[in-house]
Amino acid sequence: MRNKYIAPVLLGAGIAAVLYSCSSTIPKKAVAVTNFDKAKYLGKWYEIARLDYKWEKDLNNVTAEYSLKDNGTIKVDNKGYDVKKDKWEESIGKAKFVKKDNVGMLKVSFFGPFYAGYNVIAVDQDYRYALVAGESLKYMWILSRETSIPESVKADFLIKAQEIGYKISDLIWVKHDKTN
What we know:
Layout: H1 3-22, H2 38-41, E1 43-51, E2 59-68, E3 74-82, E4 87-97, E5 105-111, E6 114-123, E7 129-133, E8 140-144, H3 151-164, E9 171-173
Antiparallel strand pairs: 1-2, 1-8, 1-9, 2-3, 3-4, 4-5, 5-6, 6-7, 7-8
């Protein structure tokens, strides 16, 4: 008798999991950039700093390249050099806008239907430097079009991140070789 309830419960749980994975969130005090210019954001970015997590553990020379696909989604090509394994790692995914494509709130997937929040919360007017918040206070990145960032921009981004609630003392400052 109990078995006839298992399938509907599992199906409901599966649907809920998929719906949850397709949503995107942003940390409570963070606000995504409005008047976001998708075309200006496309291209290559160097990771300057990040809150470390398992997918980027031990990576230096990290870059992210964003390009527009024919179907309107954005191709995400992340690369980094694993210093412990002594080899390059690459991960290709896709990004979609959560609301409108002029709001810097996206969801990114590297694993099928599972998405995570990718929120541009600060960018300079020339799209040279960006502060990106993940879906929670566990994920944050500082990006630049070059392998370094001016101290004034770095200071502004760190203040903003700290005001949101990020623990900036935990940031990993990414090394970039001059040969990349």
